[in-house]
Amino acid sequence: MPLPPTPAGLRLDEDDGVVTLTLDRPEKLNALDAEMVEGLADVFEGLHDDGAARPVLVVGEGRATCAGMDRAIVSGDYAGEHADLDATVQRVYELVETYPAPVAVAARGALVGMGFLFATASDLLFVAEETRLAVPEISYGIVSDYGTTRLPELVGRRVAVEFLLTGDPIDPDRAASVGLVNAVVAPEEVEATARARLERIAEHDPSAVAGVLERIGR
After folding, report:
1. Phi/psi of residue 59, each to 5°?
2. Alpha carbons 88 and 177: distance in angstroms, whole number
3. Which domain holds residue 156?
4. Based on the structure, what is the number of domains in the chain?
5. From residue 125, how far is each of 3, 6, 92, 133 by CA, in Å?
6. For residue 16, what is the domain's CATH number?
7. Distance in angstroms (rounded) separating the CA atoms of residues 90 and 114
8. Residue 94 · residue 49 · CB < 8 Å
9. Would residue 119 count as lying in a domain?
10. Distance of alpha carbon 12 from alpha carbon 172, whole angstroms
């Protein structure tokens, strides 16, 4: 089945039953602008609609997976000036959470802000040893609606409060110890590790995989 159209700043490929979604704005460390956010929503809506339920691997071109939302967007009055964009951001998280096949993120360099929260919406997260993980929205005066609900579900209230209210970088090994990360591996191994897990899952009946994901909850 053909892949959905790919908007600017994103690439889609398929190999061995796994769809690879690449954030492709390396000159900005794959910081997400409005067009890329809308593109993510369009891509996942297309993947939902095509009914093939193919596992998705999310990676970033260049030296960082995602530096978060473009600073030009978050440095102003985000809530007042970008309400429509924020609604699309929330829609992206919902589409990832409800996708009927596993979504994995393979991160290196940096996974920050919306990139990090996108990864919490996904099913699997593999990070390179040097990856900078952070939710710095508080530093911009932004209350992350998704982060305040999702992170406590994953790591508990106390750890979520620490991460969300400091905005400080999270060491990958600590992230793994509290259940945010599946594995911390060498940078040259992170994408292959994530892909191998998805290819293993793709060997199983898609309806059974979807049923497990639905019953586990996200």
Report:
1. -135, 175
2. 31
3. 10-210
4. 1
5. 23, 23, 17, 12
6. 3.90.226.10
7. 10
8. no
9. yes
10. 27
Structure tokens at 165: 């209210």
Residue 199 burial by Cβ neighbours in a 10 Å radius (0-12, 13-18, 19+): middle
Which residues have a Cβ under 8 Å from the Cβ of 105 and sit 6 or more positions away? 57, 58, 59, 65, 111, 118, 119, 122, 124, 125, 126, 194
pTM of the entire structure? 0.95
In-domain check, residue 215: no
Q: Is residue 5 part of a domain?
A: no
Query: 216 in a domain, yes or no?
Result: no
For residue range 63-114, list pLDDT tens digits in order.
Answer: 999 999 999 898 888 888 888 999 999 999 999 999 999 999 999 999 999 9
Task: Please enumerate in sequence order all residues whose Cβ is within 8 A of that of 28, keeping only pairs 6 or more positions apart, or say none.
Answer: 67, 70
Q: Residue 200: CA atoms inside 13 Å, Cβ hemisphere, count?
A: 7
Segment 175-201, tens digit of pLDDT? 999 999 999 999 999 999 999 999 999
Determine contact, residues 132/172, Cβ cutoff 8 Å: no
Q: Which two tokens stand for residue 122?
A: 């996904």
Spatial distance between the Cα atoms of 182 and 189, rounded to a whole number of angstroms: 14
